[in-house]
């Protein structure tokens, strides 16, 4: 039997030929050698869902921050030269996706990348990875929060967790669940920063659940999607969520449906990791769960065991 040829272009079928659109994503994250997060989380997820990932490392890390000790190398000085070369070669991208940055100074580099390669209505996704559980990551100070406010104004979609959403909007963080009115106000403040759509992860609800809130600039009120709160904390889960979300959006899903698919997949990955008794420092067992992205998603994905 002859193999069908796969080429890049508009999706269509012809006799003996299957032609498929491959979206090219410029992924601006750090590269961490040990502990699944950032690029080592984004690349497999986006690739599994049919996008080509073009890694643009912000820094090299020996291991993730949960170990307490690490070696790192800031790559800020290399990034502009790479962009110059891409422009010289006439290269382009279908989406730009930024995550963990090595320093607040890199915000200007990402804004430069958006200016060079993000025009024409392309998706520009910013995950303002800088804080969790009510506090900044230990490698950052308040200048990162101020710089992130500038960066999100250039995005079409931002995906802060609840702590980051509070920092971006100067909202006092409280661990208790926000009221519906407080959540609506938080979403409105985020949209006023400039993005066309926002998704807030890890919104407190009750002792058994957390919520994801999503809203576009054409919606009056946010949508809220709840998932089980699992007793397992680790790095990289936000990277997996946003990577899955972006991949589904690039495949034509609307925002709220993409949020549900991404949340269900992440819940499945965390539950699988928890059941295996994996050391949280190592991140989640992503490799053994990627198959879930290759089968049709259903509403009860989080209860799937097969």
UniProtKB/TrEMBL annotation:
Residues 42-277 form the Pyridoxamine kinase/Phosphomethylpyrimidine kinase domain. GO terms for molecular function: ATP binding; pyridoxal kinase activity. Its EC number is 2.7.1.35. InterPro entries: PM/HMP-P_kinase-1, PyrdxlKinase, Ribokinase-like. It holds the Pfam family Phos_pyr_kin. GO terms for biological process: pyridoxal 5'-phosphate salvage. The keyword Transferase applies. GO terms for cellular component: cytosol. It is an enzyme of class 2 (transferase). Signal peptide: none annotated. Keywords: ATP-binding, Kinase, Nucleotide-binding, Transferase. This is pyridoxal kinase. It comes from Acidaminococcus intestini (strain RyC-MR95).
